[in-house]
Amino acid sequence: MIVLELSEAELIERELTIRNLRLSKEVLDTRRSAVRWLALSLGVINAGESRLGSLAVLDAMVYFQFLKKQDPTVKDMTEYIDRNWEPINEKTLRYHLLRMKKMGFLENQEGKFCFKHPAAGDRFDAYNWSSNVFDSFYKEVAGKVGDVVKDLRSKDALI
Length: 159
What we know:
This protein has helices spanning about 10, 30-40, 50-70, 75-85, 90-100, 125-150, and strands at about 105-110, 110-115. It is mainly α. It has a domain at about 25-115: Arc Repressor Mutant, subunit A. About 15% of the residues are buried.
């Protein structure tokens, strides 16, 4: 029997970590704690991480997308982060934007960034955006899992 070795890393198209965290009163006490909770929930950071750059960039995107209802440039975000967090250099900012883009949260066009547009509805509505991001990812993965399980029914078990 020939066993095919798969390179699993090459098969991964995209990963999405979603954590169901308890939403306590303390989480909403300050903007920074709310942003940290959001970053943990979305898998932008892991528990115990203290990368303020990721938090600052996520905060800037939330501010511009859902409060100002506009797509920011790198300059807009730098000014916001410098004013509300601590100074960030452009290379670090672009690194975090690229990470969030690879995660499937962000898009960019003509020098402006935005959260990935939902398939339908208002892109400046946070509930609509989050529902669409998670639903589309879940449906894609669920479809592939269903295809593999269906295919397994026609294969002999190796017992």
